[in-house]
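Run: sequence + flavin-adenine dinucleotide -> complex structure.
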Amino acid sequence: MREFDVLVLGGGVGGMMSAIYAKRRGKNVAIVEEMMLGGVLWSIEKIENFPSYAEVSGATLAENFIKQIKHLGVVSISDEIVDVDFSAENKILVGKKESYTAKGVIIASGLSYNKLGSNEDDFLGRGVSYCAVCDANFYKDKDVAVASRKGSGIKGALDLVGVCKSVTILDSEDLSVYAKHTKNEKIKVISNVKDLKVTGKNLVEGVTFKVEGKEEKIKTSALFVELGKKPNTMLFKDLKLDENGYILTDEYMETSIKGVFAVGDIRAGKLKQLVCACSDGAIAGQNA
Ligand SMILES: Cc1cc2nc3c(=O)[nH]c(=O)nc-3n(C[C@H](O)[C@H](O)[C@H](O)COP(=O)(O)OP(=O)(O)OC[C@H]3O[C@@H](n4cnc5c(N)ncnc54)[C@H](O)[C@@H]3O)c2cc1C
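>> structure
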């Protein structure tokens, strides 16, 4: 088991800022990240509200942050945490590759996309996407569809429409109340869609669904699943959560378990923004 003073679960902005503050207090700090340090930053094209930049891409900020944590000597571990044990003074994070222990743990694992719950996983990266802004360009001049719930897909459809040939919004409810937001000759709306499924051999070729019990199908090169996000708290059932599943903390970012902190989008807080994740991280890193 690898031992540290402070372990940070998740390498987005909240996690990296936590690590910076903890490391500058002389702690032996590691960030465990399953994908890429930077988290959501990699999917943000343009940021206009991060201090000292009139405009900056998420990728540039991610690269700058990564340089900073490397410069400070923060250990970066590539692993997915699949279980935790916070019952003793030395907390344990169980990864797919190894286990890690520290007295202080900072949870910074952000939000995850709500799933459609049909066969979408079979086509992930092969036409099914959870990020219209990130992947629109792969479907330039193609017909695409957006899975939506109560209008959750409208923003994604508007991001796609400038690039794609046509965008069909498939909403599980009646979207007619939002008609003025979808008024665009390239956008088609189908309401009251149930049992949405992807079809295709290797790549997405179309979708099937039911409207008022009647089977329908359309051809599409991609299905963008735009059903909102939820906090990644599956592993943290022992912590006090708010009614929406976000982790409750005190003003030091400490959770209901001593020595366990939470920062960024996963924490119960009114505003989910980069500067908020930075502020949370600074406070947690100072106290963990
Ligand atoms: C499209 C988009 C645009 C945005 N634009 C802006 C903007 O312009 N300005 C602004 O201020 N904010 C913006 N935001 C919000 C901002 O990006 C977030 O508030 C912030 O990035 C959250 O950081 P975080 O560290 O909490 O989470 P994340 O960046 O989500 O980082 C969480 C990390 O944890 C990792 N992780 C999760 N589970 C595990 C596990 N079990 N094991 C290991 N690693 C794990 C994930 O891989 C991820 O890297 C935007 C968000 C989005 C989605």
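>> summary
The chain has a mean pLDDT of 95. Residues 9-15, 32-35, 39-41, 43-44, 47, 49, 80-81, 108-111, 133, 232, 264-265, 272-275, 277 surround flavin-adenine dinucleotide (CB under 6 Å).
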